[in-house]
Amino acid sequence: MSSNDKDHLPTTINSLATELIIKIVRLSSPAPSWDNSVERFKHLRNLALVCRALRGPAQEELFRHVILPSLHAPQAFVAVVKSRAGARKFASIPRTLRAGPPTKKYNQTTYAIHYITKHCSRLESIWLLNTDGLDVVALTSGTAVKELFCDGCRFIPPKPNQKGTASPLVRLGITNCSGVSSLKSHFLPQVQSLDASRPVDNGSMYKLVNSLGGQLHSVCIDK
Hints:
38% of the residues lie in helices and 15% in strands. It is of the alpha/beta class.
């Protein structure tokens, strides 16, 4: 075969740069959300089965945005990811976590959430549904989490031994949540954006806004 013939050989997936394959996988996949979690899982699973070149990037993208409709067995979830991605690499993969049953009220504990965040030390954004007894400081302190969005959750005050500990959150979203009075400004010194919808207690919500004061760059409250 001449050099000219080699120049005209068809391009295959195996001949592409890894960075390009990763972009193809990410751009072709449905955006992570509650509504298309099953579709996204099936799409990435199918990509992983096509060939070896797609397997790694597809699996990593699957674990990059974690969607768990139930957290009854968080240890099992962590074990699965470790077995696929490798224990050392695991902490660097997940960036977002969506967790919680979307239809049941208060049927999961923060222990499950804490277990996940402990092993996913580079999480940046968390979406929680129907989580009871949510301690924002304990959940996010010492992590890379910058965004927390809660729907149907109940907040609780930080424990006394957390005095002086602060959350790294920059953006906080609250929808139909109770216990907002437990969110104090000195525990949230970096919050710059607050989005609130259907507050259970309007008084507590407005007190939170006032306490955060000048540090807020944007506030949106939808009754």
